[in-house]
Design goal:
The structure holds 2 protein chains of 2 kinds. Chain A is mainly alpha-helical. Among the domains of chain A are: 107 residues, no CATH class; 90 residues, no CATH class; 90 residues. In chain A, 53% of the residues lie in helices and 4% in strands. Chain A is built from 33 helices and 7 strands. A two-stranded antiparallel sheet of chain A has the order 1-2. In chain A, helix 4 runs antiparallel to helix 5 and helix 21 crosses helix 23. The longest helix of chain A has 46 residues. Chain A is globular. By secondary structure, chain B is of the alpha/beta class. Chain B folds into 3 domains: 48 residues, no CATH class; 341 residues, Alkaline Phosphatase, subunit A; 42 residues, no CATH class. Chain B is globular. In chain B, strand 2 and strand 3 form a beta hairpin. The two termini of chain B are 39 Å apart. Classes of the chains: A mainly alpha, B alpha/beta. At the A-B interface, helix 1, helix 11, strand 6, helix 27 and helix 28 of A face helix 2, helix 4, strand 6, helix 6 and helix 7 of B.
Chain lengths: 761, 480
């Protein structure tokens, strides 16, 4: 970072800014603080627009800014476009031809109620949670392995992912959703969902260092991991860069170094842990049952052990003698072992043949009487029957727990250097976002309300502060999520820097709209589904994509939203769409992450604790939605990576959307893509028959939700005919009968690569 | 943030992405131009960012101008993974020999340090510069007058993976953009049909994996592309079963027509056009990338010079030859990872003898070939590992990790050959004189490429980032 500007320059620039800065209706406030740090207020809704152009108050804010620039919105998109748009936005899956036709019919009767009904239907779909969980998992840098050198698998991390999916589907209030992720174990220690939610803190990368390694290295790692927890909490919930304050007071935002280390105290009291997913009562009962069982098991084992010991005493010398005789040794050696067992030579020999001479319990058996054997079996059966009743361990989740009730000592560090400890600090939050209540107050309240004696309640205090609209960071947290929701519906947030609401954030294009939406959001209980409804029933969301050069001249970047811009499917949704269209999507929800095949040549790391298997095969069980694919940090799925899937090293607020040749190579040559094209072709042939024209019609409907145009039909027909002819001519490649099928697969694969397939209007 | 890749500088007034935008927004009043110039002079207003380069919207690798005339056009980084030992290769320490067997108080990564251990190798002086080189590097030794040694490097972590991340990205944690990503983001690449940043990896995989050549928070287009040195060099270059070039050409023609019709209904969407072009590029890449591994156009003498005729050096020799072929085709940044690891926790003599043998001819071949083909003056060659090794022994004749003092050398474009910068203490434990941080090393590389490391920035999660974080000084004394 560069040095701050000299003060004289700031003053001169300040003069320059008068009259040129964006006009912005901010509330009356006395602090002069940055807009995003202020309490939520409720801007008045502009009077612009009639009932047709302004479906919802959202539109009035949009129209006000458009009118100011003499811009007009674009007319509504077609029913087909809207169906695709809404299905992809809310479920991340393409609508089936029947679904498109149904919506078109409803829309022709009453567009507004058709739209509202479809939104309700999609919000109620379990796919909604799967679709939107992915957005939050980006922000939470979620993955299924440790990363770093070991990159060990996290076999129970998926409970956090499932918690996110379920919370969205049940529309868990967002403030609660946030609090649980910071302190679910402290807030609701009997609720497995709340416990799994702490996976948020734990989800970052982790280096497993053995104790023998130098302490300095282990401390450095610990502070890096604490920094990841604070930085991710800052980016995900507050859209603030807290990491800067590790070394120095934040240069632009009011985040002093002291605040950083005081917040660090909340996480310094604990670490990643496997947490039982059960109420404490159930855990207690499980523990009791287990103890009971152990006692019973021991009790049953003792007679068996005693009996074996006794039997061994009787028969062991006999068995040993037989073993000596059977040794591959000289007769002299055997006789030494047999006749002078105490001699030093015998001891040496016994050592040499130790393995061979060892008398195992089973070795006794042939020397026992029938009666003895029966007795043994009876005792053994008693033990085995109890063993079968061994209590099943409680399921656990990879989450976060405190070490105990006492906080760990936390120090202010100079320059982020853990050698440079200065004074000790206690729990605290961002001073700039704390009004009329102190961290001590929050902590005292948390301890007073504490439901468990084995944690510090620091994270609970942090969680309460985080969502406190009046005294804490609640207003900012609400603005940040409202902006994220907007971003996923429009491609950009109202504030384009979704992970940065600090003083250097991109200024909001519609600050009053963001504020009004936020005030509605918190007024109606922090629920996301009503927020989607409000946004998606607005005319601005339903606009067409038509380009207008005059509007573009005024607002080339479409910041004022005079039209809709096509949006590219994310990596996961592209993969899911190929599965859906080919009829191969395995709709199973939840559970352990699935390892799908990755080309061995794409596995390029070593020394991993749990190497990614190189021999996996493409089966229906790997055809789950991409959300459920195992994200091995050091071996990211190459196709998801090529299409800008995040690497889960840090919070990702908005994905890049790059267009590069390796993406095209993947669509042309990747074995998963080709396999789905073959499936798609099989489906098309099965449902449409052998006639190319019918095949093209169906393929177009399944993949693009519409009928092909005449030129497209011609193009498709001539493609298929040529491919069949040429492939048949190359008869040596494969049986002639396959030419039709392979030609159709070529065609279906090309459809996956169409711009229209990956860009949604 | 795609095609209008938003790049931001770290000034107070970051809402202006560049000077042009600043002037546009600030109006055109008298004196504003002067003020803007003043700001620029004060370092408050960065120059236009690479993202504003014409053509970047359609091609993220479009060549962008450097900040000032560049000495080097491309970089070949010979990455000695596992950490070679300075005192056993290029930096002999008489005091270490004298005190061989003495115990000192020292903290080492794996604990249980042994006594000081002299080098198992003998050394000779070479060239006009009289640089010391160990007996195991006879052919590398022929080039010492071209080298600028940096013998006082230091880094943070004692552990391989964080150290690898640091030497590659400047930060000892995962998730930051690598030097190669920064360079291609800043300058683009002249190669149309090949990636701008290519990594020729370790055949058993590199510790820490692809995060070593990651684009971090930069657009993913700038991440390094891993090439294998045999077979199809990159992923998805082999067509699926039963699909021939003819079938694929037909698919591309179909796509082109259907996508063009779609484009006509979608004016104002450059991404859609870029995507149409990306398929053609992919098609060309398939043949171009396959050409790379076809060494039939190279003379027998060349192959032998790179050590391809000997088993021990064939792997690295192939990668070094590939590196030359890549930069010849305009690729900007190439990393050649050594094979296996220089990680000599025991039997340093055996380990380093092997790794010297596997790299000696390939490095000699590469340096000679670059000169012969007129690439020497435009190519920067860097040699080094992620850290160094301890002066004390570990186990039987090994050395543990040492980030406190290690070395690298640079050669080629813009480098003053026959020089040496910085020193460790008398036993080679800690960098003492003219200490050089990883940021300094990166700043120097960028400088040679014509890039001011303080001006190559990218805004991410509210912070303006640089390859060199908040530090970095160009090592002026090794520049020609």
């Amino acid at each position: 970072m560069q040095t701050p500007a000299p003060i004289w320059l700031i003053l001169r620039l300040g003069l320059l800014f008068i009259g040129t800065s964006l006009t912005r209706g901010t509330p009356e406030h006395d602090s002069g603080g940055h807009w995003s740090y202020l309490p939520v207020w409720s801007p008045s809704i502009p009077a612009t627009g009639d009932s047709d152009s302004a479906r919802t108050p959202v539109d009035r804010f949009i129209l006000e800014r458009l009118r100011a620039k003499n811009l007009t919105p674009t007319p509504q998109a077609s029913a087909r476009e809207l169906a695709r748009r809404m299905y992809f936005d809310l479920t991340g899956l393409p609508p089936t031809p029947v679904q498109v036709k149904g919506f078109e019919r409803d829309f022709s009767l009453d567009p507004q109620s058709a739209v509202a009904a479809l939104i309700d239907q999609l919000l109620a779909s379990p796919h909604y949670g799967e679709r939107w969980a992915r957005h939050w998992l980006d922000v939470a840098r979620y993955a299924d392995s440790d990363g770093q050198e070991g990159d060990a698998d996290r076999r129970t991390a998926h409970h956090y992912r499932d918690f996110v999916v379920r919370s969205l589907n049940t529309d868990l209030a967002f403030d609660r959703f946030v609090r649980w992720q910071l302190a679910g174990d402290e807030l609701e220690p009997d609720n497995p969902e709340a416990i799994a939610a702490t996976g948020f803190i734990a989800a970052g990368t982790h280096a497993e260092l053995p104790d023998r390694l130098m302490e300095e290295e282990r401390i450095r790692t610990r502070f890096n991991e604490l920094d990841d927890m604070i930085s991710t909490t800052g980016s995900a919930m507050l859209a603030l860069t807290l990491g800067c304050a590790r070394c120095h007071d934040h240069k632009y935002d009011p985040v002093p170094r002291r605040d950083y280390y005081r917040m660090l105290s909340a996480f310094n009291g604990g670490d990643r842990a496997e947490l039982p997913l059960a109420s404490r009562d159930a855990i207690r009962r499980h523990g009791e049952a287990r103890n009971l069982w152990e006692t019973e098991f021991q009790a049953a084992q003792n007679p068996l052990k005693d009996w074996i010991a006794k039997t061994r005493f009787i028969h062991e010398s006999e068995v040993r003698l037989a073993k000596i005789n059977g040794l591959d040794a000289t007769d002299t050696e055997k006789s030494i072992l047999r006749d002078t067992p105490g001699s030093s030579e015998a001891t040496d020999l016994a050592k040499r043949f130790a393995k061979k001479l060892r008398v195992a319990d089973e070795d006794l058996r042939p020397y026992l009487s029938e009666e003895e054997r029966k007795r043994w079996d009876t005792l053994w059966n008693v033990v085995r029957q109890i063993e079968e009743r061994r209590p099943v361990p409680l399921p656990t989740a990879f989450g976060f727990a405190d070490f105990g009730p006492e906080p760990r000592e936390t120090f202010l560090l100079a320059r982020g250097d853990f050698h440079a400890r200065s004074e000790p600090v206690e729990l605290g939050f961002l001073t700039a976002l704390t009004r009329g209540k102190t961290p001590e107050d929050y902590w005292a309240e948390a301890r007073a309300a504490s439901l468990r004696t084995d944690s510090t309640q620091q994270r609970r205090a942090l969680a309460e502060w985080m969502t406190d609209l009046e005294h804490g960071a609640g207003a900012l947290v609400a603005r940040v999520i409202v902006n994220r929701v907007w971003q996923h519906h429009f491609g950009h947030g109202l504030v384009r820097t979704a992970n940065d609401f600090g003083t250097r954030a991109d200024p909001a294009t519609h600050p009053d709209l963001l504020e009004w939406l936020t005030s509605e959001f918190v007024r109606t209980g922090w629920k996301l589904k009503p927020l989607h409804r409000l946004i998606m029933t607005s005319a601005v969301y339903l606009q067409g994509t038509t380009f207008d050069p005059f509007s573009a001249a005024v607002d080339p970047d479409n910041r004022l939203l005079w039209r809709r811009r096509p949006m590219r499917l994310e990596a996961e949704i592209l993969r899911d769409s190929m599965l859906a269209v080919s009829g191969m999507l395995n709709p199973r929800m939840f559970g352990p992450a699935v390892k799908a095949p990755i080309a061995p040549e794409a596995i390029q790391a070593r020394n991993m604790k749990d190497p990614y298997p190189k021999d996996l095969v493409d089966t229906p069980s790997t055809h789950r939605r991409s959300l459920y694919l195992f994200h091995k940090r050091v071996v990211q799925n190459p196709m998801l990576q090529a299409f800008d899937g995040p690497d889960a090293q840090a919070s990702c607020g908005r994905r890049d959307i790059t267009t590069v040749a390796p993406q095209a190579l993947a669509l042309l040559n990747d074995s998963f893509v080709r396999a789905r094209a073959v499936d798609f072709a099989t489906r098309v042939r099965g449902e449409a028959g052998a006639k190319p024209e019918n095949q093209i019609h169906l393929a177009w409907q399944l993949a693009l939700g519409r009928e092909p145009t005449l030129p497209e039909l011609d193009l498709g027909t001539s493609f298929l005919e040529t491919r069949i002819r040429q492939r048949t001519a190359r008869i040596q490649d494969h049986p002639a009968a396959d030419s039709h099928e392979l030609a159709l697969a070529d065609f279906c694969q090309a459809i996956f690569a169409l711009n229209e397939f990956i860009y949604v209007d | 943030m795609k095609h209008q890749i938003q790049s931001h500088h770290c000034g107070r007034y970051a809402r202006f992405n560049n000077r042009r935008e600043f002037l546009k927004k600030a109006g055109s009043g008298c004196g504003l131009l002067a003020l803007a110039d003043l700001l620029k002079h004060e370092g408050l207003l960065a120059a236009d960012s690479p993202a504003d380069t014409p053509g970047r919207a359609l091609n993220p690798m479009a060549v962008a101008p450097p900040h000032y005339p560049a000495k080097a056009r491309s970089v070949i980084w010979l990455f000695m993974e596992g950490a070679p030992s300075s005192v056993d290769l290029f930096d002999p320490k008489p005091e270490l020999t004298r005190r061989d067997g003495q115990r000192i108080s020292i903290d080492v990564f794996n604990g249980n340090p042994g006594p000081l251990m002299k080098s198992p190798f003998t050394f000779d002086q070479h060239g006009q510069s009289g640089a010391w080189v160990c007996e195991k590097y006879p052919n590398v030794a022929r080039h010492v007058d071209d080298f600028a040694f940096i013998k006082s490097l230091y880094s943070e972590s004692n552990d391989h993976v964080p150290a690898l991340y640091q030497i590659n990205t400047g930060i000892a944690r995962p998730g930051f953009p690598s030097a190669g990503a920064w360079v291609t983001y800043g300058l683009g690449s002249e190669s149309r049909n090949l990636p701008g940043y290519v990594v020729l990896g370790n055949s058993s995989g590199v510790k820490g994996g692809p995060l070593n050549w990651s684009a971090g928070f930069l657009p993913t287009s700038y991440q390094g592309t891993l090439f294998r040195s045999s077979g199809a060099p990159i992923l998805n270059l082999t067509r699926p079963e039963h699909v021939t070039l003819q079938d694929q050409r037909a698919q591309l023609d179909f796509l082109h027509q259907a996508n063009t019709a779609h484009l006509q209904l979608h004016a104002g969407e450059p991404d859609l056009l870029a995507r149409i072009q990306s398929f053609e590029l992919a098609y060309r890449m398939q043949s171009e990338a396959s050409d790379l591994t076809d060494f039939s156009t190279e003379s027998q003498q060349t192959l032998e010079m790179y050590g391809l005729n000997q088993k021990v050096s064939r792997n690295i020799g192939t990668k070094c030859l590939m590196a030359r072929r890549l930069i010849e085709r305009g690729v900007r940044f190439v990393q050649v990872y050594s094979d296996g690891e220089w990680d000599a926790h025991s039997d340093l003599k055996g380990n380093h003898s092997h790794h010297c043998a596997s790299t000696d001819m390939p490095i000699h071949g590469l340096l000679t070939d670059l000169k012969r083909r007129g690439l020497w003056d435009s190519t920067l060659v860097v040699w080094g590992g992620e850290f160094g090794r301890m002066p004390v022994s570990q186990g039987s004749g090994g050395r543990d990790h040492n980030p406190n003092g290690f070395m690298a050398w640079m050669a080629g474009a813009g480098i003053r050959g026959g020089t040496s910068f910085g020193e460790t203490d008398e036993i080679g434990y800690k960098a003492e004189t003219d200490r050089v941080s990883v940021h300094d090393l990166h700043a120097t590389m960028l400088h040679l490429l014509g890039v001011d490391h303080k001006r190559l920035t990218y805004l991410h999660n509210g912070r303006s980032h640089r390859l060199t974080d908040v530090a970095g000084d160009v090592i002026r004394k090794i520049l020609a």
